[in-house]
Amino acid sequence: MRTADQITQKLTEAFTPQSLTVEDESHRHEGHAGHRPGGQTHFRVYIVSDSFKGKTRLERHRLINQALAGELAGGVHALAIHAAAPGEGGAS
Hints:
Number of strands: 3
Number of helices: 3
Helix content: 25-40%
CATH architecture: 2-Layer Sandwich
Radius of gyration: 13 Å
């Protein structure tokens, strides 16, 4: 299973998001630290979930990092997170 699919699956199970997009940005990091041939090392996540209501940005990032601990300890070098509760900052 591709890493992006694993991330999608784990975040869906953990947060039942209203919306979720996982982008593999590895191609943008060729020649940088952590890049490997074949990619699947650098990701950007956009997630909107009721689970984030009343939580700070740091708390949201910690929750996501906990859900993806295996991936972050393995092949994922970088993860950019955009987490919101419904209705925040244009999130729906």
